[in-house]
Amino acid sequence: MKDKLAILTLGAITLTACTAGQTVMGRIQSSNDESKALYEQVLQENISAGLDKKNKCKSPHYQNSRNAINELGRKVDRLYAVTQQFGRYSDVEISVAKDQLIPAVAYHIQGLFDMGDTAQKQGCTKIARTAYEQVVKNYPGHAYTGYRERAMMELQKL
Fold this sequence. Notes:
This protein is mostly helical. The protein has helices at residues 2-51, 60-83, 91-121, 125-138, 145-157. The chain has one domain.
């Protein structure tokens, strides 16, 4: 009887851990979907800005793109803060934040490049410069060297 009770208890613990794992994975996927949706908004606004021949550099689509990029940037900042505050957050929360941080950073950097490239093609050097400078300023780590180098090359073209 004790053996059956132990197996039932172990099964309940496993089920609880499995359910918690699914919940965590659901949160990660939901956050990644949110980052992707913001990036898709950036893309759409940049495409619209590139097609806006009438307003060119004054296109409201650039501001909409900037708003979505800024929201991605705030998300990156929030996630990064969680990964650096050991003791304040549980190991699971820190792990979840790290898993969400990687795609959020990628979408943020790519959004900045997309905006800079679109603006550069339209002759909107101020908008392009701001986007490329943000890559250089916000991503100083060794892992981002290639991105910074590309941004600096684009800045030299302006």
